[in-house]
Design brief:
By secondary structure, the chain is α+β, with helices and mostly antiparallel strands. It is built from eight helices and four strands, in the order E-H-H-E-H-H-E-H-H-E-H-H. It binds adenosine-3',5'-cyclic-monophosphate. Adenosine-3',5'-cyclic-monophosphate binds next to loops.
């Protein structure tokens, strides 16, 4: 299985409720390497650009105002199968449907304020990582993307 990178965001609700440490502990217990990380507060226009694939959805305005309502932590997580494994560790988008012991089951309130975000495919991982981070020195993301495309 290939080493992958994925983008993780600890959202404003989880930052406000002081769950950064708990979430990072679960990330490390699950054997991800946190390859890069920093905190920032997005402008609403930046949140809209990041979530552009949801622009037509009824929840888009609420989503972008929530994501710009306070600081977030963005991270590049790295391990074998990182994209699917991070999604599994997050749990379902709606915390009411999330499996026990997933991050959203433990720390999220609602589908709108659901503690964490993760990329959903190699293509979005590439797009989302390069939205926040300079091209990575240690992994050739474009090469990984090509590999993922040729093997699917
Ligand atoms: P995230 O994985 O960050 O991607 C888009 C976000 O939109 C999602 O988490 C939810 O927090 C939010 N959202 C709000 N309503 C919905 C919905 N009905 N379906 C999917 N995502 C939703």
């Amino acid at each position: 299985m290939a080493i992958e990178q994925t983008l993780a965001i600890i959202k404003p609700d989880a930052v406000k409720q002081k769950h950064i440490g708990n979430i990072i502990a679960k990330i490390e217990a699950a054997q991800f390497n946190i390859q890069q990380a920093f905190m920032l507060q997005l402008a609403q226009e930046e949140a809209a650009e990041f979530y552009h694939i949801h622009a037509e959805k009824p929840f888009f305005n609420d989503l972008t105002s929530f994501m710009s309502s306070g600081p977030v932590m963005v991270m590049i997580l790295e391990k074998e199968n990182a994209i699917a494994d991070w999604r599994a560790l997050m749990g379902a988008t709606n915390p009411k449907e999330a499996d026990a012991d997933t991050i959203r089951a433990l720390y999220a309130q609602s589908i709108d304020e659901n503690a964490v975000h993760g990329s959903d495919s190699p293509e979005t991982a590439f797009e989302e990582i390069t939205f926040f981070f300079e091209a990575d020195e240690s992994l050739d993301l474009e090469e990984l993307l090509d590999e993922a495309e040729t093997s699917s």
